[in-house]
Amino acid sequence: MIAAWFDGLWQNFFALIGEAQTWLFVTLVQPALYRLNMMSYADQAYDATFWFLAGAAQIAVVWALLRPLEAWRPLERWPDRKVVRVDVLYTLISRLGLIGLVFFFTVQPLFDALQAWLQLHGLFNLNLDQYIPGAFDHPVIGFIVYFIVLDFAGYWYHRWQHQFQWWWELHAVHHSQRRLSLWADDRNHLLDTFLLQSYLATLALLIGVEPHQFVLLTLLSGALQSLQHANTRIGFGWLGERLLVSPRFHRLHHAIGYGHELNHHNRARIYGCNFGVLLPWWDILFGSADFDTPLQPTGVRAEVEGENYGRGFWAQQWRGLARMGRQLRRVLHRSAAAGG
Description:
- The protein starts with a helix and ends with a helix.
- The chain has 14 helices and no strands.
- The protein has helices at residues 2-35, 42-72, 85-95, 98-120, 128-131, 139-163, 165-175, 190-207, 211-229, 237-243, 247-253, 281-286, 301-304, 313-339.
- Helix 4 (98-120) runs parallel beside helix 8, helix 6 (139-163) crosses helix 7 (165-175) and helix 7 runs antiparallel to helix 14 (313-339).
- The radius of gyration is 21 Å and the shape is globular.
- With 340 residues, the protein is mainly alpha-helical.
- The chain has one domain (2-235, 309-339).
């Protein structure tokens, strides 16, 4: 019964968004493409219109649910919310499909070619349906399996972001926000966001995720990650904390003195703790979970000690690239010295 309700819910969602997509495309997007002599991109623009509307709906629902929660039970009380404004911009860029537009025009053709090549040579053998026969006959079961697999992949991506210093300098754009809120999830370097989306989309293609399921996975993941970053003292309880990443669990990951330290006493946490994207299971399994340490101030130690990470969007983007470049030059210098 629950499965039938869930199936009906997402069918109604897609029908509603589909109607709005058609209206918006025919009314505004298609005429604009015609005037700009870009009708050859009509298919990509139609898909982008869907992502725009789905993202707008997600932002509206998340804000309507989480902003009152932040006001009702805030973990921190701030004199103003000005520093959060740049995170709102990040959210709009990420969830309204602007990154997706770049993706469509650059990586999507490569994906299409890869898929055709794999099918032509009979190498499309990572499709999970082949390894778990019958499990994907019902869309809800398939959705849950894909959810778990992609979350496992996201856990390792997140650990790599902390493990390699040059990569950390990009990821530090996310960690540099010292006032976490429902908007902080999408505060990422654009290059890092592009890499993550390419990574997850490639994996989704290889394991056989259907397009409509990938949309739902993306929307659900974004909503839950907004909750994780929310400025709220709400707890999930002992069991809930171990089933789903909570605001408390993730806030400790952002802690200045604990979330990313190169000399932590627990060797499993040399580069931080609580990396789980949605599920804390992987942290528990691989020894990187911490449910007990008291909450601490969030941010990046280097910024607290005086390094400028930028206040505005473009400053944060540029400084992230500059920091990454410095680290890569050091890696190349050490490699050259070792080889010489």
